[in-house]
Write a structure and sequence with these properties.
Helix content of chain A: 40-55%
CATH class of the largest domain in chain A: Mainly Alpha
Strand order of the largest sheet of chain B: 1-2
CATH superfamily of the largest domain in chain A: Cytochrome c oxidase, subunit III, four-helix bundle
Distance between the termini of chain B: 69 Å
Largest sheet of chain B: 2 strands, antiparallel
Oligomer: heterodimer
Order of helices and strands of chain A: HHHHEEEHHEEHEHHH
Strand content of chain B: under 5%
Structural class of chain A: alpha+beta
Number of helices of chain B: 5
Distance between the termini of chain A: 65 Å
Radius of gyration of chain B: 21 Å
Structural class of chain B: mainly alpha
Order of helices and strands of chain B: EEHHHHH
CATH architecture of the largest domain in chain A: Up-down Bundle
Number of domains of chain A: 2
Radius of gyration of chain A: 27 Å
Number of strands of chain B: 2
Chain lengths: 333, 148
């Protein structure tokens, strides 16, 4: 007897080998396996985001107040518009990808080249938009004060618009009053050069407090969402008391430790999930470029099939699919 | 290489002459859904902002009922609508852009049911426990104080 089995004798059966029960090529099936496992990775991330959000459900930042910027329209509050544009760009590049696949089925090299090129451009616009979105998020908007307990206190005042009193946010830059202090940035030239130091926040809490005391109409609002879906606005006396007693750190923008929008987990998940998705888009663009040059060189023409375009197409649509969910859970819900 | 595409969506209510036309049709539909989402997201109609059902009160079966009906007991109708529209978009991206509509039935089930089952599972565990942690932090007998 042989020590290894060379033939199972079941070749004529459906699963015995030698045929393709799923009517899909090996490469496409492997791409689907990868997509399923990657989908589970992303759903794990999004479910973890859901966990943290449920944990802080009545103090999570309101997306419409965080993502309000659109390039070239500085100072206007336009929630959702820019992400909707990004979503459309990605869906549009998915369409050009599927058109490339279709042209590949007809062995039309010129059309595949054109549509692959458009797909790469769409992907590049999306990655660029995401970089801009990150930069805006990191730079911050109005600034805030973090309390000893890690909560965020933001500033604003009531402004009457069309006869209705609305609460408008006020930037810490507008209220802070410079005070004499001995806060010095630790630089290589004025300290021990081999010891690192974190850069100082823009203002000290005392400067913000002096500004708050001087501006009679400015109020503080905390993270707690009331029954109408708005953040709780404190009374004047309570505002002063909170900053005086609990204010610990002035925060502008966002990083992995603190952010001016709310619980630090919010920024952590924003960076992690959109970053992981952005990395997928970036690698998708790189793979698309490689395939694009292969198409130009006629590799698939010689191979007699444009299946490679189809496989990279599957990956590209998957990236689009993930973004649809990221869009919902970060910006809509 | 013979490629036959199924050229109809919405269970045959919208038929197309060629695959390229179908692609543009699906794009129009996806864009339409995205526009609805954005408009709803900006205006937030107040009619969709209140839960449709109050949680059940009582013992074990009330808890069970709350879990079963959690999408309408604990979620605002607006958010439920967003999630449903997202799933609709996901369906058309997978079925028409990724050509799932043209694949063998067994392959479709292999991909879809594996994902659906595992994703529902992890969502249930994490969201349930997130709600529990919220209760520990914010309950009346909570030992953790975070009001400073």
């Amino acid at each position: 007897m042989d020590s290894t089995v060379a033939s199972t004798g079941t070749e004529e059966k459906t699963w015995g080998g030698g045929n393709r029960p799923l009517k899909a090529s090996y490469g496409k099936l492997m791409m689907w396996f990868f997509i399923v496992s990657d989908a589970l990775t992303f759903s794990g991330f999004l479910a973890a985001y859901g966990f943290s959000r449920f944990k802080f459900v009545n103090e999570w930042p309101i997306a419409d107040e965080v993502f309000t910027h659109v390039p070239f329209l500085h100072g206007q509050e336009l929630p959702m518009i820019y992400v909707a544009f990004m979503t459309f760009v990605l869906i549009m590049s998915s369409v050009t990808m599927v058109l490339a696949v279709d042209a590949g089925h007809h062995m039309n090299k010129a059309k595949v080249t054109l549509y692959m090129f458009l797909t790469v451009i769409g992907g590049a616009i999306f990655v660029g938009s995401q970089a801009w979105e990150w930069a805006t998020f990191i730079q911050g908007d109005y600034g805030a004060v973090q309390t000893k307990g890690g909560n965020i206190l933001q500033f604003g005042e009531y402004v009457t618009v069309d006869g209705v009193a609305e609460f408008k946010r006020v930037s810490i830059d507008d209220i802070a009053i410079e005070q004499k202090s001995d806060r010095v940035d630790h630089e290589r030239k004025n300290g021990l050069w081999f010891v690192g130091g974190e850069s100082l926040p823009p203002y000290s809490v005392n400067e913000i407090y002096a500004g708050l005391a001087a501006n009679e109409n400015v109020l503080v609002r905390n993270q707690i969402i009331d029954e109408n879906g708005h953040k709780t606005i404190l009374s004047r006396a309570e505002s002063l008391k909170q900053i005086k007693e609990n204010g610990k750190l002035v925060v502008k923008g966002a990083n992995l430790h603190v952010n001016e929008y709310g619980p630090s987990l919010f920024a952590d998940f924003f960076f992690f999930i959109t970053g992981f998705h952005g990395f997928h888009v970036f690698s998708g663009v790189v793979i698309n470029i490689i395939i694009f040059f292969n198409v130009i060189l006629g590799t698939y023409e010689r191979r007699g099939s444009y299946e490679m375009v189809e496989k990279v197409g599957l990956y590209w649509h998957f990236v689009d699919l993930v973004w649809v969910f990221v869009f919902t859970f970060f910006y809509l819900v | 290489m013979a490629h036959e595409h199924k050229l109809e969506i919405f269970r045959g209510r919208w038929k197309f002459k060629s695959n390229i036309q179908k692609i543009w049709g699906v794009l129009a539909f996806l864009t339409f859904i995205t526009i609805i989402e954005v408009v709803l997201g900006i205006y937030k109609p107040s009619i969709l902002m209140d839960m449709w059902m109050d949680p059940f009160e009582g013992g074990f079966f009330a808890t069970l009922g709350n879990i079963l009906f959690s999408p309408i007991v604990y979620m605002k109708p607006l958010n439920l609508l967003f999630i449903l529209l997202t799933l609709v978009k996901a369906y058309y991206i997978t079925w028409d852009f990724m050509h799932m509509r043209d694949e063998q039935g067994s392959m479709r089930k292999m991909v879809v049911w594996t994902s659906v089952f595992l994703i529902c599972y992890i969502m249930f565990i994490l969201l349930q426990e997130g709600g529990y942690v919220f209760g520990v932090y914010n309950g009346e007998d909570a030992l953790i104080k975070r009001d400073f």
